[in-house]
Design brief:
The chain is an alpha/beta fold. About 40% of the residues lie in helices and about 20% in strands. The chain starts with 18 loop residues before the first helix and ends with a helix. Bound molecules: zinc ion (ZN). The site of zinc ion (ZN) has 5 residues, from loops. InterPro entries: Clx_II_MBL, HAGH_C, Hydroxyacylglutathione_Hdrlase, Metallo-B-lactamas, RibonucZ/Hydroxyglut_hydro.
């Protein structure tokens, strides 16, 4: 845990945190150094993969049937199946039921993903990988070995295991005529993070966004390899998509994220209702996705950096010499800081 040394002196609510608490906790050079070291070992060396394999083994023992109960969503013959993997990740198997073609997003644990593909009796065409972290990319190679013609998509900048088809911003990927994905380059969490939009126009329904670790239900990923303004422009990419877009995030973080949002913006009614629903779902270990971007824009603080209600709640004001985008980046930075402290307490 990052914060253990200063935890005892710290007051409980994030609203009562002083700049000094934040400085001591997050920006302390020693802590930063340790975190950076650990992060490099995880992402750049074989140790990361060994750690991932251990996590996989532990999660399979602890949750033999998966960490959550999920059910498929079918939109005009396109079937989306969330596959619970590790302790809180989701992979997504997307099937065109007319052609039996399937692709999978972020298959970090190949075993349950393969079981799902076999049960559905479909042929895997491709892996769409959002970013290099092992809890998203750890199964790429195994699936490529198992399904010989399987392609692996991702950003070349992110050192994706097994990558065969490097992508650029706004590339489209077609599987037959009905499965059309568009890749958006969304750096910040990692330098090469990509999100995938399944185009609803090809099937006459809403689009589906597979957001990896960029956006979660009521949350956003940590900025490991980018600053707040990079992250802000990636979040704005999500904000510009249609309101009816379904959000399929990389982790089951809904409960924690909404409790945090409730601390930040205590007067947000939509968020309160969503939290009640999420508590009900999680009480039965049910999956909380998909939400819609219309909903997210109303309660996800990280998609609300333009909102005056949020500014008031955070006690922030635009400075005279500060342009709107820099101000919104500062709002995002403040949110991220509070969230890091919230998570570590
Ligand atoms: Zn990640």
């Amino acid at each position: 845990k990052l914060m253990s040394s200063s935890q005892s002196q710290r007051p409980k609510g994030p609203s009562r945190l002083s700049p000094r608490d934040i400085h001591n906790g997050i920006k302390h050079p020693g802590v930063l150094f340790k975190t950076t070291c650990r992060y490099s070992l995880y992402t750049r060396t074989k140790l990361g993969y060994i750690f991932h394999k251990r996590q996989m083994r532990k999660a399979r023992e602890r949750y033999p049937a998966g960490h959550s109960r999920t059910q498929p969503t079918i939109i005009n013959g396109i079937k989306i199946i969330p596959v619970p993997i590790l302790s809180d990740n989701y992979s997504y198997v997307v099937i065109d039921t007319a052609s039996n073609m399937a692709v999978v997003v972020d298959p970090a644990d190949p075993q349950p993903v393969q079981a799902c593909l076999e049960e559905e009796g479909v042929a895997l065409q491709a892996v769409l990988c959002t970013h290099k972290h092992w809890d998203h990319s750890g199964g790429n190679r195994a699936l490529k070995r198992r399904y010989r013609s399987c392609r692996v998509y991702g950003n070349a900048m992110d050192n994706i295991p097994g990558l065969t088809h490097p992508l650029s911003d706004k590339d489209t990927i077609d599987f037959g005529t009905r499965l059309r994905f568009r890749a958006f380059y969304t750096p910040g969490h990692t330098a090469g993070h990509i999100i995938y939009l399944l185009d609803g126009r090809a099937i006459g329904g809403p689009s589906s966004l597979f957001s990896g670790d960029l956006v979660f239900l009521s949350g956003c990923g940590r900025m490991f390899e980018g600053n707040a303004s990079t992250m802000l422009s990636s979040l704005d990419t999500v904000g510009s998509l249609n309101d009816d877009t379904l959000l399929w995030p990389g982790h089951e973080y809904a409960k924690d994220n909404l409790v945090f949002a409730a601390e930040v913006e205590p007067c947000n009614v939509v968020q309160k209702q969503k939290l009640l629903w999420v508590l009900q779902q999680r009480g039965q270990r049910l999956c909380t996705c998909p939400s819609t971007l219309a909903e997210e824009k109303q309660y996800n603080p990280f998609l609300r950096s333009h909102s005056q209600d949020l500014h008031r709640a955070l006690g922030l004001q635009q400075k005279q010499d500060e342009d709107w985008t820099s101000y919104r980046a500062r709002v995002l930075e403040e949110l991220r800081r509070r969230k890091d402290i919230y998570k570590d307490r």
